[in-house]
Amino acid sequence: MIIMENYGTIWVCVDCLMHHANGECGSCNGLYGPHDEEPLSAIEAPYTVAMGMAYEEHAEDCETRIQGGAPDNYECDCETNTYSTSQCEGCGSWLHGERHAMTLFKD
Asked: What residues are paired with 5 via a beta bridge?
């Protein structure tokens, strides 16, 4: 069994999130212009990422944290920052916009 150490939550741009989920994003095919930075290029071995955040990192009043998992029909917004001026922690881009939570692991 492989045990990966949780290094906490990082906040990534939409391009990084889509690359992790689908292997590509809208910028890959030129729909929205070229990438500002190569998605997830700031994450190097032995580190990997997974979408979302650990339940204990959710807000104290969030049902996901309280129950240790998301109850049916519950929508948690802890994993999305709808507007950020901070640098993407996945690729280093300074473009403003949404940031999404991903968990950083070390093999």
From this structure: 106
Q: Please state the length of the chain.
A: 107
Task: Give the domain range for residue 56.
Answer: 5-106
**Number of domains the chain contains:** 1
Radius of gyration of the chain (CA): 15
Q: Which three-class secondary structure state does DSSP give residue 11? A: strand
Tokens of 56: 């204990």
Rounded Cα distance, 24 and 95, in Å: 18
Higher-confidence residue of 73 and 91: namely 91
The model's pTM: 0.83
Alpha-carbon span 21 to 35, nearest angstrom? 17
Report the run of H or E that residue 66 belongs to, with start and end.
helix 63-67
Residue pLDDT, tens place only, 58-76: 888 887 777 777 777 778 8
Determine the 3-state secondary structure of 61 from DSSP.
coil
